[in-house]
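User: For a benchmark we're assembling, each entry needs the component sequences followed by a predicted structure for the full assembly. Here are entry 17's components. Please fill in the structure.
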Amino acid sequence: MKIWVDPRKCEGHNRCVARAPDVFRIDEEGYSSAPEGHLSPESEEDARQAIRECPERAISIIAR
Amino acid sequence: MAEGDHHSIEDLAANFDHHDEGLDNIFSTYSELRGKCPVGRGHKYGGFWFVTKYEDIYRIEHDSETFKVAPTMIVPPMGNKRPMIPIDLDRPDNLKFRRILLRDFAPQKIDAIGPAVRSVARQLLSNVPDSNEIDASAVLAKPLPTIVFSRMMGLPEEDLPLFHDWVDRIVYVRTHDPEVSRRTVDELYEYFSKLRSRRLTQGSRDDLIGHLLQGEIDGRPLTEDEFSDYCLLLFIAGLETTAWTIRSSLWYLAQHEEDLGRLASDFSLIPTAVEEFIRCFTPSQGMGRTVTQDVEIRGKHVSKGDRLLLLFGSANRDEDEFPDAEEVVIDRRPNRHMSFGLGIHRCLGANLARREIRVALEEFLSIFREFRLVDEDSPWHGIGPLRLRVAPATGENK
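Assistant: Structure for entry 17:
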């Protein structure tokens, strides 16, 4: 599974990293990004939860 | 409106008020409005359209061209003659000013000041006299955010006693005596302007005031007015809302023994519970917008120039977004509440607020594991006294 944080939508609420600290990276201004490659299978459920928590709906699954 | 009163939905809409006594039964008011009049016209504060549904507010918050914040996001205004920075600014200025302080509120920075927040909370609670009755607002909810904020800003500690009075006069008096809040804002402009002059003669310091003085907009430093307008916003946003949420969280726990027991025996549940308290007891119930072109919102024709009031407090209890929306569910997930706003005006201090509320609850519950309301009628809202009957303090900090 691959995911993507739309930088035009992320407003730095940081709910994704609160839910899935091993998946998301937060830059020094507080904006989030996801790894480019496939997630490890054990991270997938955390990532799905983070997607549901994002109040801006900025995170999407781009490959299964 | 007292329960049992007979009122028409038209009256309920026309008299809608998200402040003062309007807050007492606001959740049942919201529920009725969402069902029968999800977008409607209120006549208070110069007149506005209120918007109660989660999806509508989500869409409006993400269309910052049609829905602007100028002249101000606050309904009714605080009495400021110039826009507060950055919340009363639209694109592109809003982001230019936000960028100056974004780093100061990023999660890495909040993690770094976490221990300092905790030591302030411990210090405050260690001063609580041994008694079976305490005022949780006075001992913790109000002073914690004030002290944390003052230190982050770099404000002189001896000025602390002034701040609560200023907040009361601006935030709470404005709905019935706007002249008092206007004069108080003038006092604050003067306070920040003097502070700026003083700081400019000193060396640069690593605090918010220092960062505002070093910050640049389009390659130039902030003017004296811009500096004061930014400080005024930080002051108003940083103190009252966090105090409100700490107080209302304790107000809830004082009446829900089982939830209190769960949190007191497992602090790892607290961060998720904090999100739920922020959802249910939304300290900023609504924020304003100005419509820049004629639009339809849920079948209502809204004209260019009309003011909108986006009711986060209602969206946060919208059944279409939250199952069992009226229930406080301390392990609720997901929880996409709107208490910090969405889109380009998202609350800059959200991470700091979350941290302060979390630490306040952890430290309070580590000393007081059981407590009840002294006065069953004490309101859920505001930053007034919260008298609690507590078991004798037994925590490790005592």
